[in-house]
Amino acid sequence: MQETPTGMRWNSDELHTAVARLCKTMPGYEDALKKSAAAAAQLQELVGFDLSDQLIDQLTYTATYEAHAYYLLGLSQRQEPAREPEL
């Protein structure tokens, strides 16, 4: 199992529930989710499940680092220095 940049594990039910709840409040999220699912289905049809699943996992893992960087930059706008949260 891969860890996020902060060391938080992906399989945290509490984390997944909080993120899902927050995403549902964001305008455009449901549409983006539908479009992502359609693109993933097309990719799976072309290259097979295993390769498409591997690509999606790696893109998600990379996006975690990018989201964390945006988070840290946002924190640094409010307080200096921005520190990695202790878990």
Written overview of the protein:
By secondary structure, the chain is mainly α. About 70% of the residues lie in helices and about 0% in strands. It has helices at about 15-25, 30-45, 50-80. α2 (about 30-45) runs antiparallel to α3 (about 50-80). The radius of gyration is 16 Å and the shape is extended.
Give the helices and strands as they follow along the chain.
HHH
How far the N terminus sits from the C terminus, by CA atoms, comes to 17 Å
Nearest-angstrom radius of gyration?
16 Å
* Unreliable spans: none
Major sheet, described briefly?
Answer: none
- Global outline: extended
Number of strands: 0
Which percent range fits the helix content? over 70%
Number of helices: 3
Instruction: Please state the structural category.
Output: mainly alpha
- Beta-strand percent range: under 5%
User: What value does the average pLDDT take?
Assistant: 82
Strand-helix topology:
Elements: H1 13-24, H2 29-47, H3 49-78
Short synopsis of the structure:
The chain has 87 residues and is mainly alpha-helical. Helices cover 70% and strands 0% of the residues.
